[in-house]
Amino acid sequence: MNPGDPDGIGRSAVQGGFDAKRAFDLGVSGAALLLTWPVLAIIAVAVRLDSKGPALFRQERVGLHGRTFRIHKFRSLRTGAPGALISPTDDSRTTRIGSVLRRTKLDELPQLLDVFAGHMSLVGPRPEVPRYVAMWPEADRRLILSVRPGITDPASIALRNEADELAAAEDPEAHYVTSLLPRKTAIYADYVRTRNFLGDLAIIARTLRTVVTD
Q1: Most exposed residue of 74, 144, 179, 213, measured as fewest CB within 10 angstroms of its CB?
Q2: 3 state DSSP class of 94
């Protein structure tokens, strides 16, 4: 075991031992983009018609080995509106179509592009902005960033009502930093330590079930 990699999950493990995971991500994301492009086009037009601004929202996130990338989502907030990095359910910046997209998780669909490009995986710790990554304990940060971030993971399922919890907090951003972020970090780290292909398939199935039934 590499002494500089106490968890035994180094760069070679991601690039070599998990090539099958990357192949799965590439195949599924490519097929999904081909099948859903009419839906993506319709949503993009709806976002543009609903409010001024681009259809896609791009934001710097921290990915594999600490490299930053621009994540893609359908824009759900008004362009140029000031506010915190986090967004509770009752965020006044949310557009009409944005409210629907966030509730149905359709705003996340453009991340299939990020998976196809290799910046993300279908399953993996959700990518955070640099500010919040800097708040992770060093050991957890090194572990979590040893894998590609994902569209979904166990934290996305366990904390699927995150926006409602933030809305109920007196100070949403402080609540995120002191309560939600540590809980997410612990779940991310546990996922990386125990991840396997069958487990990823189960997470995808649970995510789809949650989206359909909630």
Answers
A1: 213
A2: strand
